[in-house]
Design goal:
The structure holds 2 protein chains of 2 kinds. Chain A is mainly α. Chain A has 1 helix and no strands. Chain B is built from 7 helices and no strands. Classes of the chains: A mainly alpha, B mainly alpha.
């Protein structure tokens, strides 16, 4: 799929997907780190 | 002892299998979202819907888990301390996941609104009640963090029950009032719905983010149970007062 990044709507589509992945996997990574620490 | 070890071994394997399965479904969901046909008026921008919708719908479900766990905590706290502690841990885990999903619902909605409507925000009924939902669960987490240790469970459980009242109001807002936010896509009457060629992307992504949510909820609950057990061991003097890494906030 071609996403012309120079248009506002296409750019915001990319931002929205980035926000989802960053927040979800940021929280997931924090949780994994806490989990590993609690295993010690 | 052997029984407990077998049980934790089973959950460790289940957790890993669930993670692999969730990763596969997430990848399929992403592929389906990117390959679904273009929408007639919004073009590619409408693909935000494939992530916005699952997160918003799930952010209406996790608070009910929080409310249910809080009610169970209040019921069990003077009857069965062990069960009450489990309910409290589950309430905390579900509140954190609620804040995560609501934050994503808000952020993706604002990005979509800016591109589609030309504005980041408007104080219409859906957006306002959804912001209120986010604020209520952020305040729930703040109460848990800063209230005095003996009252944390009760105060937060009562707040959780009040917070849950906002969910049906927010859910029904686009049915009760004319809002800037579009009318319901599913279950909104004869004119609602999406093209059948887009169903696969919606369903795969709802399944993927529900599985991911269940997984982080499960791990967060298990982590909180470990913290509770560690705090109990400290309280009874079984361990030294120096918390190991990862348990600094245990009370």
């Amino acid at each position: 799929m071609n996403i012309p990044f120079h248009t506002l709507s296409q750019r915001h589509l990319v931002y929205a997907y980035c926000v989802v992945w960053l927040l979800q996997f940021g929280y997931g990574t924090w949780l994994a780190v806490q989990w590993r620490k609690s295993n010690r | 002892m052997i029984e407990t070890s077998r049980k934790s071994g089973f959950f460790a394997i289940l957790g890993r299998l669930w993670f692999v399965l969730t990763a596969v479904v997430l990848i399929i969901g992403f592929y389906e979202a990117m390959t679904a046909p273009k929408e007639a008026t919004m073009g590619n921008l409408y693909r935000v819907f494939f992530y916005h919708f699952p997160h918003t719908i799930l952010s209406f479900i996790f608070p009910y888990l929080n409310c249910g766990a809080s009610l169970l905590f209040l019921w069990w706290r003077s009857r069965n301390i062990e069960r009450a502690a489990k309910a409290d841990a589950f309430a905390l885990a579900s509140a954190e996941v609620t804040v995560l999903y609501t934050s994503i619902g808000l952020a993706t909605g604002m990005l979509w609104g800016r591109a589609a409507w030309g504005i980041w925000w408007t104080w219409d009924e859906r957006l306002t009640t959804y912001l209120l939902l986010w604020l209520l669960y952020v305040s729930y987490l703040l109460v848990r963090q800063f209230s005095s240790a003996g009252q944390t469970g009760v105060v937060s459980a009562v707040l959780a029950i009040f917070a849950a009242v906002d969910i049906p109001i927010c859910y029904m807002s686009i049915r009760w009032w004319r809002t800037q936010h579009p009318a319901p896509v599913f279950g909104g009457g004869a004119d609602s719905g999406i093209d059948p060629s887009m169903y696969a992307a919606v369903l795969w992504n709802v399944a993927a983010w529900a599985m991911w949510g269940a997984m982080i909820l499960g791990y967060r609950y298990a982590l909180e149970r470990r913290r509770q057990q560690y705090a109990a061991a400290i309280a009874f003097g079984f361990l030294s007062n120096d918390p190991p890494p990862g348990f600094e906030g245990a009370r």
